[in-house]
Amino acid sequence: MMTDNYLLKLYHKTLKYPFGRALFSRMFAAKAPYFKTIKPTIEVLEPNHCVLTFKKRKAVANHIGTVHAIALCNGLEMAMGALAEASIPKHLRWIPKGMQVNYTAKADSDIRIVAKSDPAAWQVGDLPVSVQGFRADGTMVIDGTITIYVSEKPAKKQA
Fold first, then answer.
1. If residue 21 lies in a helix (H) or strand (E), which one and from where to where?
2. Could you count the other beta carbons within 10 Å of the beta carbon of residue 13?
3. pTM as predicted
4. How many CA atoms lie within 13 A of 122 on its CB side?
5. In the 8-state DSSP scheme, what is residue 36?
6. What angle do CA 54, 88, 9 make, to 5 degrees?
7. Which residues form the signal peptide (predicted)?
8. Phi, psi values for residue 76, rounded to 5°
9. What is the 8-class DSSP label of residue 68?
10. Lowest mean pLDDT segment, chosen from 24-33, 64-73, 126-135
11. pLDDT for the residue 32
12. Contact 60/67 with Cβ under 8 angstroms?
């Protein structure tokens, strides 16, 4: 895959190594240390599409033994961030603006998060990114939208 996107280049480069997905996922999670709390693995990274997974374990469980809401939201935010970095045109930048989620079922298994955006939407202004989480049996456990604000990068100052 030929691309000039730095994140996609790094992703495809690491996939050539044993445990490449795990290596890439750890490097990306280090950008925002709270991502590391869920120990995610980015399974798929393409422009406008990201899939990540994480295991249900004690560290992400709540008092009733299901994956807690903040762990789910961390997964949504990480998938959205990877999607945004892999998709945004070079002359633009982004920042999260808001998140709306609905918890739709008990998250009582390992989790798969899917983030998607419209390729034509990468323009200045608000951009909604669809984010959903699924348990192992395919049941959706969280459904949301993360709105990011996209703006032009400032012009570089001449020395």
1. helix 20-29
2. 12
3. 0.92
4. 17
5. G
6. 65
7. none
8. -60, -45
9. P
10. 24-33
11. 87
12. yes
Q: Please tell me the distance from the alpha carbon of residue 22 to that of residue 9, in angstroms, as a whole number.
A: 16
Using CB atoms within 10 A of its CB, is residue 103 exposed (0-12), middle (13-18) or buried (19+)?
Answer: middle
Per residue in 45-95, pLDDT tens? 999 999 999 999 999 999 999 999 999 999 999 999 999 999 999 999 999
Q: Residues 12-24: what's their mean pLDDT?
A: 94
All residues at 6 or more sequence positions from 120 whose CB lies less than 8 Å from its CB, including other chains: none
The tokens describing 10, both together, are: 């790094």
Dist. CA 26–CA 116, nearest whole Å: 21
Non-local CB neighbours of 43 within 8 Å, separated by 6+ positions: 21, 51, 52, 53, 112
